[in-house]
Design goal:
Layout: H1 17-31, H2 39-66, H3 72-92, H4 98-136
Length: 137
């Protein structure tokens, strides 16, 4: 997939505090891969990133399921694709240099994930807002 690399900014925020906070946390974790580090720290951080992605995707999917989001199945497939890419990186990371791991993580978060936010997640925001308002009324 040809993606543009995007760093965290307010244009990635939707005004949904839990989702915005989790998205930013993933970018913050990705940023820790830049600079110097040792193999153990990098591997631990990579595992933390994988774990946090699972937490975020589960929370997002549960929110969308509770609001009967019509495109939830397609959204889950994209989440599964990303988790697969992260798992593949985790499995091959031991044979990679620290720079290669950092580059791959930055591609996944600043590339794939940021594009997912801007092109896919943005599509559910009107639904979430309308359902939330509907459920309050």
């Amino acid at each position: 997939m040809d993606v543009a690399l995007v760093e965290w900014s307010q244009k990635l925020e939707f005004g949904l505090p839990m989702i915005d906070s989790q998205h930013k946390q993933l970018f913050d974790l990705a940023a820790t891969f830049a600079g110097n580090g040792d193999q153990i720290r990098v591997m631990k951080t990579l595992v933390m990133l994988c774990d946090y992605v699972k937490v975020h995707f589960r929370a997002e999917e549960e929110m969308l399921a509770a609001l009967d989001y019509p495109d939830l199945d397609a959204h889950k497939l994209l989440h599964a694709e990303f988790k697969g890419l992260l798992l593949k990186l985790l499995e091959s990371a031991r044979q990679m240099t620290l720079d290669e791991i950092a580059n791959e993580v930055q591609y996944l978060i600043y590339g794939w994930f940021s594009n997912h936010i801007l092109q896919v997640d943005v599509a559910y925001v009107p639904w979430v807002r309308s359902q939330t308002l509907h459920n309050q009324g």
